[in-house]
Specification:
By secondary structure, the chain is mainly alpha-helical. It has 2 helices and no strands. About 65% of the residues lie in helices and about 0% in strands.
Length: about 80
């Protein structure tokens, strides 16, 4: 057995031991329950109120667009692409 061959076997054994230790550590960590932490507002009532406020703001914007469209003040100019 050459020295180079022995070094390779030692390195491979070391890698196997480290991978085994990593597997054992990961198995022990996964046994416990994992808690998910959501960002933002933790209160579901406050979340719903924020959603309602966002929908109301969106409705106001749509109403303004609707008012402009119904008033007839909107002018649309169509430019033919072949004229460029």
């Amino acid at each position: 057995m050459t020295r180079n061959d022995r070094a390779i076997r030692v390195l491979l054994t070391l890698i196997v031991l480290l991978l085994g230790a990593n597997l054992i550590v990961n198995m022990n960590n996964s046994a416990g329950p994992r808690t998910a932490y959501a960002e933002g507002i933790p209160d579901s009532g406050a979340q719903l109120q924020k959603l309602i406020d966002a929908v109301n703001d969106l409705n106001k914007k749509v109403d303004r667009i609707d008012t402009v469209l119904e008033s007839g003040t909107l002018n649309v100019k169509v430019q033919d692409k072949s004229e460029k």
